[in-house]
Amino acid sequence: IMETLLKVLARTQSGAGVHEEAMLAAGTFTVAAGEHFQKYLQQFMPFVRAGLQDHMQWQVCLSTVGVLGDVSRAVGQAVFPYCDELVSIILTNLGSPSVHRNIKPELLTVLGDCALAIESNFSKYLDAVLTILRQAMVMSVQMVSSN
Known about the structure:
Layout: H1 2-11, H2 16-33, H3 41-53, H4 58-75, H5 80-95, H6 104-118, H7 126-146
Helix pairs in contact: 1-2, 2-4, 3-4, 3-5, 4-6, 5-6
């Protein structure tokens, strides 16, 4: 099933509807496969990266964020080799005013999923994550104050 989904993702990177559905199906497969999903990580993570970067099609990005959470919970520490790049993309998206506001809370949630998955290895990202959280808090306070 996953090999077929990888083929679909490879052929439809430019078609958002099919890409989003294939990504969601891969997320479901991830949950079902659990830790056995590790064998697909190397092939699948480029699609996760592309989906996270495709914030202009916010539904694709949002579904990819959810799938990354599924992958992190399923494979645990095995996601760590991909975290430098993924956390960087997530932090960039959080700091970008062009990223749809519906995505940002989910990005914060997936950071938590990654932290739980890689445990103490997440400490290397902690300063950057705390900075983003502080900025989000300040913006929230400003929004409430202006209302």
